[in-house]
Amino acid sequence: MRGFDPKVTPWQIREQDFPHQGSMPDKIRFLLGYAILAPSILNTQPWQFAVSGDELQVFADHERWLKVADWDQRNMYMSTGCALENFLIAADHFGYGAEVAYHPPTFRKGPIASVKLSPRGEASSSMRPELFAAIPRRHTNCDEYLERPIERGAMAKISGCCAEEGILLDIIEDVRIKSAFDDLLVRADTRLFADDRWCEELAFWIEQGVLGVPWLIAKMKSLAVTFLNLGKGKARRDAEILMSSPLLAILSSASDDPVEQVRVGQVMERLWLMATTLGIGVHPMNQVLQVLDLRLEAAKSISRPEFTPQLIFRMGFAEPPKSHTPRQPPVEVSLTR
Ligand SMILES: Cc1cc2nc3c(=O)[nH]c(=O)nc-3n(C[C@H](O)[C@H](O)[C@H](O)COP(=O)(O)O)c2cc1C
Fold this sequence. Notes:
Structural class: alpha+beta
Number of helices: 10
Mean pLDDT: 89
Bound molecules: flavin mononucleotide
Radius of gyration: 19 Å
């Protein structure tokens, strides 16, 4: 993976290392250590940053965009939103207020968001200080979940993380709707694994080490994706783990553009961190939305038909994974005016 040093463990970031006496750029660079722990589609980490004075600019990194799987870029922008949210939660924790501006992207240029920090001169006033501690503890949990239901109180805390205008969280417990999604998932997996270009792209990224396995195993996995028809087995496994999950959830947005997708990513990360504090596992299963006709079918299950589904995920209780996926250091570019 580009610039990835296996000796460095970005997950072991230490709060006490915050450069209280340092310059604003030093502080922002430290906070970026939390931003990059965010989840991203296939762990591609498609984000870049520019730092100047008290300002951070956040860019989507088009070199790390999955051109086949994420053809309409929604996952790239949502991933960037997850990183932005971690940055804001960390800034808040260290006593900085943030003014965020969003910028609709011009072709491949310009930041998608910029953040101006200002010291509040007091300890964190965050409504949800517990989210900060969850940043280095968060995982994607792809295991089968226990039958144990998620209590109403916990669910209310998770739902409470989605209060944004124009963003909707649908929680699905109804077994009939879950099995309809199960069917969509099987169809999506089968179609995607039958697509050579999709398999080649997946194999390429696995070989880059995004999944954190040693090079030889990564190579073998990538060969398996390219040459074995894994679609049926994957579809069966995905169907089982989906039905084992107490809850399926969908985040949707009123408008369907990059800025909204960044905002959806922010909500996703916030509720994911909340789930982490409650010991609840989260697993995005977005392949249904990668196939246009299946996406239209999935949209029929959301409570407001005029909204666009952006992210489908399941939640439930399971042991957290033993290790984290790797991270590359923050990639810095020059500031854009
Ligand atoms: C926008 C977005 C879409 C994702 N879609 C999927 C998905 O379809 N299937 C899946 O298994 N994981 C999905 N993930 C989870 C990533 O694979 C995971 O975040 C990444 O591998 C890093 O691992 P971590 O979350 O444990 O840090 C998605 C994550 C994001 C942010």
